[in-house]
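== Sequence and structure of one protein ==
=== Format: two labelled lines per protein ===
==== Data for this protein ====
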Amino acid sequence: MYELLSEPIRRYVREQGWEGLRPIQSASIQKVLQSEDNLILASRTASGKTEAAFLPILSSVNFDEQGVQVLYISPLIALINDQFFRVEELCKYLDVPVTRWHGEANRTLKEKLVNDPRGIVLITPESIEAMLVNSAYKAKVLFSNLKFIVIDEIHAFLGTDRGKQLQSLLFRIRELNAGNVRVIGLSATIGSYNQAKEMAGPENTTKILRDTTSKVIETEFRYFKQEGAELPLALIKDLYLNVCNNKVLIFPNARGLAEEVAVKLHKLSQKVGGHPYYFSHHSSIHKELREYIEEFARNNVRFPFTIACTSTLELGIDIGSVDKVVQIDATHSIASLIQRIGRSGRRGNETSKLSLYATDPWSLLQSVACMTLFEGEGFVEPIEYTEKPYDILLHQALALVRQLSECTQEELVHRLSINTAFKYITVDEIREILRHLIQTDLLECIGGKLIIGVEGEKIVNTKDFYSVFQTDTLLKVRCQDKPIGEVPFSSQIIVDNNMLLAARIWKIVDVDLPAKRITVVPAMDGKKPLFSGSGADIHPKIREQMLRLLVREEKMPNLSEDAKEAIRQLKLDFELYTIENLETDRPLKVQIKDMFWYSFHGTKVNRSLAFLFNAANIKYNLREDESMFEFKAGDFELIIQKAMKAYDELASVLESAVQHDPLMLAFSKFGSYLPLKYKVHLVRDKRFNFEAAMDFLSAVHISQTHS
């Protein structure tokens, strides 16, 4: 396929000294240059997907034509900044301008692009939305002659509100174009190709190119029981010996843990005369510090280093060669775990290495379940998505009215109804939502034309309007005049408390909420710092695999002796239960005063069961990490019957809950502006799975023991 490339691009390939094209690159070159299809390029991390997209694009596009020719869309500003230099290097023989367009990008270069729209633009969905809403004419000048849209890390959008917004934006961009705009999506971990095709669309002209070449993964699982609030000292010591002579990324599951790990490893290294290169990296770290850490990791050849990070380094930001990845406790998805493992062994055919440290036996079991499912079946969670995203439709209705300045109601209904992002929402539903927006002054109808209403102006005229994902209220943290980073507001932000940030412990000396500012000084009192994180939904197949590992003799990955013992102890707790059918048989432990029922089901079904128990006035305690419900001792069959009977009154109970509990809609930024029945539908669809819960209760068979 090399010969299909243009001469300048062939020269680039030769100068890189490549021995040959990688499989995904050869396949992509042929499809891009010899068809008009949209493409999804799916291959493992560091397999050359960026080049697979851009080599044929740069060979086929005439960049002398007026207007931006290629739009590169990324989920992260940091990834745009990283990929900018990579794309610019690819373009160096073609005299093609490459421009970053996001909130932190150079304003002068943006203005230059508007005056002379050419080349390639790297952008986020939110910046596209802002441009369409505030500068519709500018957007048309820039994007009316597009040839390609490249969506990097497309899996990060699938099944999310942001993904639905992006799908709508792609439709709106295509409306600006007379010609065919082709979409190329890039990803290492896609659980649902149909969803990816639907986003790239039309589905019948979208093809999947998969490089199924697997990378050797070397894993080890270690266990250190955590008794208190902080990580065990033995874990920190073992972790230090594991990472001190290597280049390592450590993924705890919260910013607070990332800070704790970085601080403790750094202190331990100081005590034993080790290297000083221990960092923390997450969204609360100031941008300049994050970029310094990335630059150090990318360009450092000589020294080992360790970066304790969150998902900020899970995606494809290039930080050079990493020897291994450490995960502390279970990830919430296999997709996330595999994405993180792929950060190591990125050069050539190096082995990807994972060390997983568990601090709880159930976390260890979940981690083993994720790894064995992936290695045994290649299973990655399919994307769960909402067919009727009413809240995103509402947002896009406001955005379109602002973009058009004014329009008739029928014109707005038409634009929304033909938008592929909302193809399952009926015209009648759209009309009903628009009537509600008019009644609540989000929209106003004057002389037959819709404009943004008084209440709508309060929403649309804020910088937060362009994003549809919920964001924390962030407080800037400063020491004297030096910015340290940002943290989300929480009840822990109190004067005299200590906090972890930028791999250091700070004492809070002042909190100014109106100014959104925290003033800190270095902490010297040894007081325990505070910083919290959050969780996510777990797929039912992972929980079923956990049950399988407990009641069957399954092949285990490489476990330390302590990890083997922790698993053995868990298995002992379940050896007396008769579990023949892993889908329906579930353990029930009955004691004198309490009963413990293990559903081994996914988070959404457990949440649905909990709602039904509440509706039936059944007292319970849910331990989600164990997928276990605790009840007072009694007739368990009666509990099941009451929960199933509560389903008959579900509609009214759920409606009342949505009306009176604002937290029910906390997941949706714009859901609170919907009519009540659409709020209820959204909550039912995104937070619960009552139908699966009822199927489970109808089929479940209880295996009971007494102790």
Notes: Residues 75 and 124 are 6 Å apart (CA to CA). The mean pLDDT is 89.
